[in-house]
Every structure is written in structure tokens, then in C-alpha cells.
Write a structure and sequence with these properties.
- By secondary structure, the chain is of the alpha/beta class.
- It has one domain: Aldolase class I (TIM Barrel, Alpha-Beta Barrel), CATH 3.20.20.
- 46% of the residues lie in helices and 14% in strands.
- The strands form two sheets. An eight-stranded parallel barrel has the order 1-2-3-6-7-8-9-10, surrounded by seven helices.
- The structure holds 1,3-dihydroxyacetonephosphate.
- 1,3-dihydroxyacetonephosphate (13P) binds next to helix 11.
- Pfam families: Glycolytic.
- This is Probable fructose-bisphosphate aldolase class 1.
- One of its GO terms (molecular function) is fructose-bisphosphate aldolase activity.
Length: 341
């Protein structure tokens, strides 16, 4: 198969009506933080048990077309010896891999951060592909204040995202480009809109300069929302209108799909906002979910690290996946939440 056909076939499998992605690619530090909330230690065995539980959930493939894994998970197996990427594939879920190496402070730009991980990336992709990965993810993070992010941070992160995406496409791996404008802080929704517009504009400029084929990539943005500490939290309809307005101004129609991150919204908020977004007017791209916390929080709470809670945890996961699947085509009704309880 040509690289082009390979990329197209992965896109066709990932972008399906009523389906989104499960982000299960927490780095060592982040998964330890999540496990701490349920009093579970982050050992290799516990991480394997948790991620096997997620990927062995019956029926998950009905609402989830792809899963983003962490490098360690690519090499782990379920209890019966099935490699976890293969387990996902058996459920009709395409395995993907987080390839960035995390963020560090951007030199000479106090408060800004930049993502590392480009060195040796092409070679690493070869290995990931042999382990079953068909797509990749790279996350850039933008802190927001009256002054942040700086022009330098916007330009530096855009250049890295674009280089990463180009390297992935050359390797036949579909890149997910993730610029996350953080919800931390007291900024207004208008400030978030302003920053997101500047960030996305720069990202697509860089993608163009690096000759990235927009039809063979996915965008994973944050929604346009007020900072968590801001006094006024906008209702879903306003978040939807602001988000679709900013995306409309910056994201070419050729992009294969937009899969939002949840970024610290509650599971219910993330579903309601996605639904509202899918009920707005002009939308040239499919708009779905690529949630980490908003999909994993309820099953994590049900699991508590106990094998006996496996069934309850998988039920909690399938419930959120089903509701988000409905929201991705604008068919979520808050009443469903009660019905599915
Ligand atoms: P959240 O949905 O928890 O923001 O995670 C998505 C993700 O992949 C972050 O990089």
C-alpha cells in the first residue's frame, strides 16, 4: 500500500459518525496523579491492569474508533498474553501513540512552555509502527494570562507541531496535532477565544510551510472556555458558538476531523459542550471527542484498583463513551444522562 493510501485508510477508520477517541496516554507523572485520587500506587502492574480493563471493555468499539496509548502500554499484554495494541485492534479500535516527550519552560520566556521530542522521532516511529501504532499525538501547551502566551511561544510550538506532523506523514502515521490552551487561571472566555485564534492561525501557517497534508491529519484542540477561576462560566451554547467561530476562522475545511480534548471539564460538561458544538450552524469538519479525564474519571472511581470492580468500571466507561458518541452527532440529550445512570 502506498503511504498515501495507508494514511487515508487510517483516517477512514478513525473518523466515523458517532465515534471518537479514547486518550489513555498519560505519562508516568500524570497517571500517578490520577491513581492517587483512588489511593492506588502507580506500579507497572497497576498501569497494565487499568489499561487492560479499558481496552477489554465489550462494545467499546461501537463508540471509540481509536485509542491513544503511552509508549509503555504498546509493549504490555493482557492477562491472556494478548499484546494490548492487538486487544484494541480486535475491538475495532485503532491503536495510536503519544510521541512527544513532554513540556519544559521556554528559555527567555517566563511562564511559557514548549514541547520536546523531535530528536530521533522518525526512528522511533518505525518501532511504534512495528508494535501496531497507526497514528500519533503531540501536545503543545499554552498558559494564558494578559501577557501569555508570548509570540515566541506561539511560534515555537507551532513549528514543532508542524515538524512532528510532517515526520509522521512521511512514516505513514496519521498525526494528531494537539494545541491545548489551558483552562487554568482567571481569564475570560473572550481572552481564551483571542489566544486560541492566534494559536491555531500560527499552527496552520506552520503546517502549510511544512507541507503537511491536511486531509491526512486530525486536530485536537481545546474548547473555548473561561479560565476555571473566572467568575462567569459560560453556558454550553456560548462555549459552542465561540469555539465554532474560532475554528471557522482558522481551520481549513480540508482537515479530516476535529477531536476535542476535555482539559479538566467534568465528564458531564465535556459531553454537553460537544453536543452543543454539534448543534451549531456552519461546520465543514466532523467534530468529535478525544477525551482522557472525561472518559476515564468515572470508571477510575468505580475501579479503585480492585479486580472485583472490573465490571462496574467497564460499565461506567461504556456509559460515557455512548453519551459522547451521541454528542458527536448532536444527539445527546441531558435526559439520557439520567436514563443511562
Ligand atoms: P484530557 O481529555 O484529560 O484533557 O486528555 C486528553 C489528552 O490527550 C491530553 O493530552
Amino acid at each position: 500500500m502506498s503511504i498515501r493510501d495507508e494514511l487515508q485508510s487510517t483516517i477512514d477508520t478513525l473518523v466515523q459518525p458517532g465515534k471518537g477517541l479514547l486518550a489513555a496516554d498519560e505519562s508516568g507523572g500524570t497517571i500517578a496523579k490520577r491513581f492517587k485520587t483512588i489511593g492506588v500506587e502507580s506500579t507497572e502492574e497497576n498501569r497494565r491492569a487499568w489499561r487492560s480493563l479499558l481496552l477489554s471493555t465489550a462494545g467499546l468499539g461501537e463508540f471509540v474508533s481509536g485509542v491513544i496509548l503511552y509508549e509503555e502500554t504498546l509493549g504490555q499484554c493482557a492477562d491472556d498474553g494478548t499484546p494490548l495494541p492487538e486487544l484494541a485492534a480486535r475491538h475495532g479500535i485503532v491503536p495510536g501513540i503519544k510521541v512527544d516527550a513532554g513540556k519544559i519552560a521556554l528559555a527567555h520566556a517566563p511562564g511559557d512552555e514548549v514541547t520536546e521530542g523531535l530528536d530521533g522521532l522518525a526512528k522511533r516511529l518505525d518501532g511504534y509502527k512495528k508494535q501496531g501504532a497507526r497514528f500519533a499525538k503531540w501536545r503543545a501547551v499554552y498558559n494564558v494570562s494578559d501577557m501569555l502566551p508570548s509570540r515566541l511561544a506561539i511560534e515555537t510550538n507551532a513549528a514543532s507541531l508542524a515538524r512532528y506532523a510532517a515526520i509522521c506523514q512521511e512514516a505513514g502515521i496519521v498525526p494528531i496535532v494537539e494545541p491545548e490552551v489551558l483552562m487554568d487561571g482567571g481569564h475570560s472566555i473572550e481572552r481564551c477565544a483571542e489566544v486560541t485564534e492566534a494559536v491555531l492561525h500560527e499552527v496552520f501557517d506552520a503546517l502549510h510551510r511544512h507541507a503537511v497534508t491536511l486531509e491526512h491529519m486530525l486536530l485536537k484542540p481545546s474548547m473555548v472556555v473561561a479560565g476555571k477561576e473566572h467568575a462567569r462560566q459560560a453556558p454550553a451554547a456560548e462555549i459552542a458558538a465561540q469555539t465554532v467561530c474560532v475554528l471557522g476562522r482558522t481551520v481549513p475545511a480540508a482537515v479530516a476531523g476535529i477531536f476535542f480534548l476535555s482539559g479538566g471539564q467534568t465528564p458531564e460538561e465535556a459531553t454537553a459542550n460537544l453536543d452543543a458544538i454539534n448543534r451549531t450552524g456552519r461546520r465543514p469538519w466532523p467534530l468529535s471527542f478525544s477525551y482522557g479525564r472525561a472518559l476515564q474519571e468515572p470508571p477510575l472511581k468505580a475501579w479503585k484498583g480492585q479486580a472485583a470492580n472490573l465490571g462496574a468500571a467497564q460499565q461506567a466507561l461504556i456509559k460515557r463513551a455512548r453519551l459522547n458518541g451521541a454528542a458527536s452527532i448532536g444527539r445527546y440529550d441531558a435526559a439520557q444522562e439520567a436514563l443511562a445512570a
